[in-house]
User: What shape does this take?
Amino acid sequence: MVRAASSEPYEELFITSRDGLKLRGRLYKRHGDDAPVAVGFHGYRGTPSRDFSGGLFSFLNMGCNVILAEQRGCGLSEGHTITFGIKERFDCVDWVKYAAELFPGSKIALFGISMGASTVLMASGDPELPENVKLICADCPFNRPGDIIKSVTRSMKLPAELVYIPIYAGARIFGRFDPSETSAEENVKKAKVPVVVIHGLADTFVPCEMSECLAEANPLCRRYTFPDAQHGVSFLEDRERYERIIADAARECGITG
Assistant: This one.
């Protein structure tokens, strides 16, 4: 799947972030200019070809053109600090604005996995998010950056609360961001479009309970769990059900026929 995604032809795209970074994206254009557009965001230190080795083709086969962003500090995008969605959420909004300029009038679906899932959820309540966005899909998101940092620290058998203090200080001083500035839940509450959250119950990296609050935050949000799926592999665990959930949501939103 990764080899297939890596060999799929694409066009390079670039935008400049609000703090001056040159960010790279990939446009996979199989359909006309009036086709819907899916804009995706990979996970922590991920790549589009790996993290969307399945999802890329799912959206292409649904009739969507696809833009996959390379998150700041990853791939060929500039930046030395990954901010767990805090700054990436603004990059997300700007990528959507660019997609709306490239394909005026086209309906847009946002999707992300892991940190990318939290990124699109943190962008979901942004008042600048273009009205072209009709659906947001998030696979195995965490709610707050601090929660996932502490969870990973505990998995390393380290005192989470104590270790988090220098991590938080480093984020403020060197990364120039506040990990507690916002959360997925806070923004989902303000979302005006349907949100689909998918999470594997066997996820030990981003525990499934980290997304429980999201479905309660907004009646437009629906959450689906996959019993035996570990982190980011619900698609592989039950591809038929996964694609049906996304396809049904896309039809209900009028993105696809």
In short: Strands lie at 11-16, 22-28, 37-41, 65-69, 108-113, 133-139, 195-200, 221-226. The two ends are 27 Å apart (CA to CA).
